[in-house]
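Because showing beats explaining, we let one protein speak, sequence and C-alpha cells together, and leave readers to judge.
___
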Amino acid sequence: MRPTQIRFADRPSITGFDPKKLAAAAKSAKNDPWARYEAWRYTGPFSRWNRFKGSFPGLGIATVAFGIYCVAEQLFFKDDHHHAKGGHEMAT
C-alpha cells in the first residue's frame, strides 16, 4: 500500500513575486545587446580549460617524476633485510 500524497494548489503570492516568471526571464535573450561585451570572459586565456590548466602548476611533471621514482625503487633498490616469519623472537 502506498501512502497518498496530498497536493495543495499554488497559493498566490501576497507580494506579487512569481519565481517561474523570474526563471523564464533569466534565460538568455536572443538579441542581447551586452553579449558581445561579455564574450571576452569565455574566450582566449579566460576559457574554462585555460583557467583549469593554470590551477595546478607542476602537477604533470611531479606525477611523472614520482612514477619514475617508484619504478626505479622497485627495480634497483631491493630490501636486503631478511625478517623472520614469526616476527621478533623474544629471549626467555
Observations:
- Residues 59-76 form the longest helix (18 residues).
- The chain is about 40% helix and 0% strand.
- The chain has a mean pLDDT of 79.
- The radius of gyration is 32 Å.
